[in-house]
Amino acid sequence: MIRLSNIKKSFGENQVLHGVNLSVDTGEVVSIIGASGSGKSTFLRTINFLEKADSGSITIDDLTIDVEKVNDKEIVNLCKKTAMVFQSYNLFRHRTALENVMEALIIVQKKSKHEARDIAIAELERVGLLDRINYYPHQLSGGQQQRVGIARALAINPKVMLFDEPTSALDPEMVGGILDIIRSIAEQGRTMIVVTHEMNFAQEVSDKVAFFAAGNIVEIERTKEFFTSPKKVLTHQFLRHMKAS
Ligand SMILES: Nc1ncnc2c1ncn2[C@@H]1O[C@H](COP(=O)(O)OP(=O)(O)O)[C@@H](O)[C@H]1O
Ligand SMILES: [Mg+2]
């Protein structure tokens, strides 16, 4: 279970998050959709302190932190419970696929090299990359690099997986394979927050959909209601716009 309460964030004069609230139950998948620049990535990044929010609180299972009073140890403990899959993969360029997946297992989770290697190989196999484990990122397609990104996130067995537009940097022919992998992870009962512009995917995979605009969640509904009978005018307009484009 993850609960974000009243998350606020400004960059200088520019307030990007206006007190966002979101709760996701264990095993639930929530998609976040919304226009570019509305603050979706910033919101996701405040969850694992890639951006430190200015205020608000974050609960993951038994750990609650107040962002304004948090200490380094609490940040580390909270971050251990999440893993993020990025739009631009964010792999270490000078490390192989295998080494990329092993990294956090050794550095953060303090696993032995041997154990980290076994876990990494299993996760790379799960995403269909067993024959590429010794390749460097530049020797892999975008889709393969994103598979490494997903294997890396899965390997640490996080309480919550965060996806930030995981297919938007990919060539169109790569998108389906990545969405299939994410779908299969969702079906295994992983708690997930997915920022996406893939409406069909959001519709098929999510338990709930949240519409983000101007730094806040305008509307969050169960998926069916969200797409069939959105309550807010802004949501309606956005969905119409997405259909037309
Ligand atoms: N590190 C940063 N420094 C300054 N402004 C930022 C930073 N990150 C994001 N922003 C600003 O925050 C706003 C929301 O950006 P972002 O969260 O990336 O939106 P989205 O993911 O919905 O496209 C934008 O105006 C963007 O310029
Ligand atoms: Mg973004």
Structure notes:
- Keywords: ATP-binding, Cell membrane, Membrane, Nucleotide-binding, Transport.
- Helix 4 packs across helix 5 (142-155).
- 42% of the residues are buried.
- The strands form 2 sheets. This protein has a 6-stranded mixed sheet, with helices on both faces. Strands 2-1-4-5 form a 4-stranded antiparallel sheet, with helices on one face.
- The protein is an alpha/beta fold and 245 residues long.
- The chain has 2 domains: 2-81 and 160-244, Rossmann fold, CATH 3.40.50; 92-157, no CATH class.
- 39% of the residues lie in helices and 26% in strands.
- The protein contains 9 helices and 10 strands.
- Adenosine-5'-diphosphate binds next to helix 1.
Give the arrangement of secondary structure elements.
Blueprint: E1 2-11, E2 14-24, E3 29-34, H1 40-47, E4 55-60, E5 63-66, H2 72-79, E6 82-85, H3 97-107, H4 113-126, H5 142-155, E7 160-164, H6 172-187, E8 191-195, H7 199-205, E9 208-213, E10 216-222, H8 223-228, H9 233-244
Parallel strand pairs: 3-8, 3-9, 6-7, 7-8
Antiparallel strand pairs: 1-2, 1-4, 4-5, 9-10
Helix pairs in contact: 3-4, 3-5, 4-5, 5-6
Pfam family, one: ABC_tran
Keywords: ATP-binding, Cell membrane, Membrane, Nucleotide-binding, Transport
Domain ABC transporter: 2-239
Poorly predicted regions: none
CATH architecture of the largest domain: 3-Layer(aba) Sandwich
CATH-defined fold name of the largest domain: Rossmann fold
In percent terms, what proportion of residues is strand?
25-35%
Q: Which molecules other than protein and nucleic acid are bound?
A: adenosine-5'-diphosphate, magnesium ion
Overall geometry comes to globular
Number of domains: 2
Question: CATH H-level name of the largest domain... which superfamily?
Answer: P-loop containing nucleotide triphosphate hydrolases
Please state the CA-atom Rg, rounded to the nearest Å: 18 Å
What's the rounded overall pLDDT mean?
A: 96
Regarding CATH, which class of the largest domain? Alpha Beta
- Which H/E pattern describes the elements? EEEHEEHEHHHEHEHEEHH
Number of helices: 9
Subcellular location: Cell inner membrane
Family: Belongs to the ABC transporter superfamily.
GO molecular function, one term: ABC-type amino acid transporter activity
Keywords: ATP-binding, Cell membrane, Membrane, Nucleotide-binding, Transport
